User: Fold this.
Amino acid sequence: MQNCLDEVVLSAYYDRELPGAEQEQVAEHLASCAACQRRLESYRILAEGAAVEVDGAGLARAVRLRLAGQRPLLWRWAVAFGAALALIVGGYLYHTEATLAAEREALLHQQLGATWEPL
Assistant:
């Protein structure tokens, strides 16, 4: 088993901050160490994901685009919640009206007796 590179050395290698001889030694180690190669690849992936324009206009635009991308998800939840609420309220009102109609019919039947026939 090889001695793997520590994070500081690997990061300095990725950023090309090592002196020439040290840079070559690290390159030789990387040629034969899959674990260090994977860690170096993770630095590349992180660097690509973190690349953002830093100027004010570019940053503001990036923030607006990111926020705009989140709005449709919020609207979907709001529409789904509204539809569920409408179904619940509609079901409650239907059930309440049906119950009241049955009670009215029973009351009329009781008051009018056998002479009353439902429509």
About this structure: DSSP finds four helices and no strands in the chain.
